[in-house]
Amino acid sequence: MAVKLGKKSFACIVLFISAPLFAGATNKASSENINYTPELLFEEFEDIASSGNTDEYLRLVNHFNSHPLFPYAKASYLSKTLSIDKKAVINEFINEYKGAPFTTTLEVKWLYYLANNNYRDAFFDAFRYGKDLTLDCQYLSWQLDGNAKVTSLHNEIVNIWVSNKSLPKQCDGVFNKWFDSNLVTSDIVLKRIELAALSKNFNLVRYLKRYLPDHKKYLSDLWIKAASNPNSIYQRGFFLLKNKDELGILLTQASKLAFANPERFYKWWVVSGKSVFSKVDGSVYIDKTVAVALAVNKSPISLTLLNKLPDDIVDESVKQWRLARALATNNWNIVLTTVNQLPELFQVDPAVVFWRARSEMEIGNLQYATRLLSELAERRDYYGFMAASALDQKLKMRHEPLEIEASVKAQIENHPTFQRALALFNNNSLLRARQEWNYLVSDLPDDLMLAAAELAAESGWVDRPIFTLSKVDYLNDVELRFPLAFQDIIQKHALNSDLPASLIYAIIRRESSFIEDAFSSAGAAGLMQIKPATASVVARQRISKYDLFEPDTNLLYATSYLEKLLSKTDQNLVLAAASYNAGFNRVKKWLPETSINADAWIESIPYKETRNYVKAVVAYKQVYQHLLNEETSITADITSLTVEPEI
């Protein structure tokens, strides 16, 4: 089901008053001498509501109260006209739309209004934890003024107090009573010291020191030293008592130290650290950190250290780096031994099954290897496609389109939250639309979520089905999960850049899931998540993130950048994809010492994000090649690719 995106303008969809509704409004307006015209938009009514103009709001409310976005206007009006006389109306509205995006501001303002005017009973009726720290403390304070005991509120107070930052002064009275109750343990204080130290709020750490017993006060100083300069841990005499509290400090810094200089940290741990912490529960996690850091750094002893770890702490990272270092040996017997030594939990992991099959195939056990690969090839994912390629089989998409009953679709079509979300989407208010969607699916049964996903796709809103189908674990409607959106634009830039459309689609699907206004914490923007700085270099002029929210502009610069990466990597899809995610210069540092198969090299990519990214792009490209019936010279079958020591 190829879904085309088509946005309708603000003025031409649901924002004009419908003819039947207006007909009634005209008679009423005439009788009341109201100057009211059909051109009045809901947007203007929202402005009136936000201004708190009661006369105008009440005069027009009946004309707009059936509009899908009316709750936004009502929330704005109530926020602007708070009054104890409206207690029932406001509480009813908040309860009706509990958790909706438009109630958050109203609820906080309402609680502040009640608190500031000392309406305690009304405050208790409306209060819910987590809206605002000051309000939380106000609630606790009034509770303690009444009949509540500190012991009954202990957990709530701990949840507020254990923070990495200073807390509102309004909380002081509550905390003073809590401290007087002797409920505050050193473990609670140390937890807050840890949070403050790790966020480098050292003034808070120094302040909290007073709450520790004398024999533990030194720990606050150790936290400051370790957090401000992790290398200070190497100093002789840094750890004094070698107890669990000191090990806790080491555990928080071990990863930073180990990955910064694996050999130095390993030497320190073996010579100085392990001997003094060996009897403290948790020291084995330092062994794990050291082994993984050495593996990432390609140390020849790392595989031995990884294989020595006890089964109960073998996790995804240990599994990954056992595989990677075994593959780096180019010895299939070592790979097979490593796979077989993994805990039973990992024996059905697709990566483990694939590399066991490859090992068995390479050492001559073809029948067993073929059986393993055949079973794996039923999967529609990276390892399933890899298995199919190894067997030279056609990929199995197993497309099973949704079949939604008309009555179920009707429930969603008439659902007010769905109508609000769709109205916001059509109005190009994409962030608010997604907020409404998340509110919608937070409390829907699976069948209604699937219906909502299908209706969204039919309306051109293609990113929501991707997330929603994943949420309910329905992964077989391939066309909903891999939409052919923005098809004209993508085909245009595929031709202009000489890139296969399937690759552009795969990058978009992995980067933004077709959210055109996506903006990452790293500063990447738009469909292909290109950074403004990178786009500006490509364009040779300043490009802003807002420019990159426009799909055509985004693809212009992102496809040009991707084309350059493919040129730099000799058209190696794996290296280009890794470079698109992590940067070309960083990928050059990850190249192997000797030639290696691309699939084995992928397993050794140091960054988990990039490793998973490359696997996803390779798999998604296969899906889109199938959907587009595309033939391309840039293969997604990486079994024929190698990665060389230099590019």
3D architecture notes:
The chain has 647 residues and is an all-alpha fold. Helix content is 61%, strand content 1%. It is built from 37 helices and 2 strands. It has a two-stranded antiparallel sheet with strand order 1-2. α31 crosses α33. The chain is globular and about 85 Å long. Mean pLDDT is 92; it is low at 1-39.
Summarize the structure.
The chain is mainly α and 647 residues long. The chain contains 37 helices and two strands.
What is the SS-derived class? mainly alpha
Instruction: Report on the biggest sheet.
Output: 2 strands, antiparallel
Approximate shape: globular
Q: Level of helix content?
A: 55-70%
What is the rounded Rg?
30 Å
Q: Trace the largest sheet across and list its strands.
A: 1-2
**Which range does the strand content fall in?**
under 5%
For the termini, the CA-CA separation is 40 Å
Low-confidence stretches: 1-39
User: What average pLDDT do the residues reach?
Assistant: 92
Number of helices: 37
